[in-house]
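User: Run a structure prediction on this.
Assistant: Running it now.
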Amino acid sequence: MKKIIIIKYGELSTKKDNINFFLKALKQNVSNSLGNIKHTISYDFGRMFVDVLEDDINIALDRIKNVFGIHEVIIGYKDANIDIEVIKENVLNLVKDKDFKTFKVLTKRSDKNYPIKSMDVSKMVGGYILKNISNIKVDVHNPELLIEIEIRKDEVLYYFNGIPGLGGYPVGTLGKGLLMLSGGIDSPVAGYLAIKRGVKIEAIYFESPPHTSEAAKNKVIKLARTLAKYNTTVKLHVINFTKIQETILRNIPHEYLITIMRRMMYRISAIIAHNNKCNILINGESIGQVASQTLTSMRVINSVIKMPVIRPVACFDKLEIIDLAKKIGTYEISTLPYEDCCTIFVPDHPVINPSSIKAQEYEELIPYKELIHEAIKGHEVISVGIKEDKEYEDIL
């Protein structure tokens, strides 16, 4: 028997006519996640099989479980001998050293020409295990060990309790979006949820030196690197926002600082997105969480661009967002005590129901178009991912 990694698709199996497109993308994403691990991948419409050296199986499994589009990933075994007596003996050899008191055998036949029905195979294998291992019993409802057998045309697969996958769609199958990534808790979670639905992300970060520190920037790079585990790579666009922010502070009534600042960020993000073939903007806005996230504020801020904006956490409460941030590995990074430009210069009483007419009037007080083009022209691009950016290894 040969030890292999088996991938089950889940939601992808519903795609019917388009399934080959999704499976090709999943194969490429799995291959990308494995990086320099030597591997071969094959698939059909039922399963994907990853073949690596046995010494690399655990690290390969650890990487594959972060790939979207997978329902379940399993270490399994395959054998070309489909004789029932060999099947019984193979199962016994695989389970005899496992610690369990109850078990169930579940058999599937993709080859319906196999002479023994699936339920009969399960009964024969189960009886053979009971005969050869003492102090165990069958539990068809809640077994400690689920033994799964798949009889295919030229081989048999054996596997046990698998690892749940992340679900969703393979990254890139639904196009590309630009994530407005801050150092907070919400935006990395929004990025993760977009990736889960097949959207490959790039990210944009607004820094404001000397008001924001290099540590704040490094924190966002680390968040981008964490998201890259699910996205393979993340291209991070870093915008120097200092001149724009200081100009707004000097010339705009303070209750409108956040509204005008966000409108500038949206304009810049839309241009960066367009230039990098991104179809949408993504952000971590959650309804009612802060002054700029009331429905009125969202409408006034959103009105300056034509590009669609999706807000994956818009209807989550803060505790739900925190729970997901902990699950995906961004929470501890996000809570590092370094302020970004969204949290400095916050007025005591920001407007929560801004007027579009007033926002436009106030913007005419500053040369915002020139400032925007200057910021975009001089912006920095940092790529992070499986191939680590050596420039930041000493600080992250």
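The first helix runs from residue 19 to 34.
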